Amino acid sequence: MDFAVGHRVEKGVTVVKISGEIDVFTSPRLREELLDIIDAGGVHLVIDLGEVTFLDSTGLGVLVGVYHRLRARDGSMSFMGVNDRVRRVFHVTQLTKIFVLHHSLDEAIAAHESAAR
To answer: What CA–CA distance (Å, rounded) separates 21 from 12?
Structure first.
């Protein structure tokens, strides 16, 4: 599966769909795509990892860096569709302490809406 990043706006959040492997080779492109989305005004992101087959420490570093940039702009970032393999990476690195992993887009949007109140 080739690496790809796409996004759309739905109910006040920007849904970013990533597919393929997030690793040392694809992380620079991921960083660039996410920063472009933020620069275009997307500050509340739901990252769809449903088609991500691999995630390494370089990719995690990109996600943490983007998270901090969003926080500086009063933004947010959560995740959905995380498979067991990628979920394990979040748990082992203890990133579940800062990142919320949702099961569905509806759940992620509902959490965003309740936090915005």
So the answer is: 28
Contacts of 12 (CB under 8 A, 6+ apart): 44, 109, 112, 113, 116
H/E element, 22:
strand 13-22
Q: What is the pLDDT along the chain (117 residues), one digit of tens a residue?
A: 699 999 999 998 999 999 999 999 999 999 999 999 999 999 999 999 999 999 999 999 999 999 999 999 999 999 999 999 999 999 999 999 999 999 999 999 888 888 776
Element spanning 80, H or E? strand 76-80
Confidence (pTM): 0.93
Farthest CA pair distance, the chain: 39
Reported as half-sphere exposure (CB side, CA atoms, 13 A), residue 112 has a value of: 26
How many residues does the structure list for the chain? 117
Give the H or E element holding residue 87: helix 84-92
Indicate the SS3 state at residue 105.
helix
